[in-house]
Amino acid sequence: MSIGRVATTGKTRICPHCKATILDSASICPACHHHLRFDPKAIVERRAQASFSALRVEGSFRHPQATGSPWEYSVVVSIRNDRGEEVARRVVGVGALQANEGCTVTMSIDVFAPHGVK
Ligand SMILES: [Zn+2]
After folding, report:
1. How far is the CA of 92 from the centre of ligand 1 (A)?
2. Which residue has the higher pLDDT, 46 or 92?
3. Which of 2, 12, 33, 65 is the most exposed place for a label (fewest CB within 10 A)?
4. Distance of alpha carbon 14 from its chain centroid, rounded?
């Protein structure tokens, strides 16, 4: 473990392809899946890091009527810290459902443990 790596933990940058805020350590954008750098050493290091999916939730909803006026929806994600303080809140998508139309939303949290999971 080096001091330099500790200092960069949690550092963010903007994906040049989709403009999402992502981890500086990411070699592939989790939003648009573009490769961000061709640095074989970085890719090997990244693969060696322990990572796991802390949460993956998927849900579907449907306009239940065969006919009728369309519905609208908003997909909102909120992040709170241990003290219950909201540190981020984003509308990640909005849309409309026509009669008898459905939609599925998947939300996942990937955790990277650069120095292993202990
Ligand atoms: Zn991207």
Report:
1. 14
2. 92
3. 2
4. 14
Torsion sign over Cα 19, 22, 25, 27: negative
Write out pLDDT tens, residues 7-35.
578 899 999 999 999 988 888 898 998 98
d(CA 111, CA 98): 36
The rounded Å distance from CA 27 to ligand 1 centre is 10
Of residues 76 and 47, which shows the higher confidence score? 76
Confirm if 103 and 71 have CB atoms less than 8 A apart. no
66: tokens are: 């065969």
**Sign of the C-alpha dihedral computed for residues 87, 14, 31 and 7 taken in this order:** negative
Distance, CA 35 to ligand 1 centroid (Å)?
Answer: 8
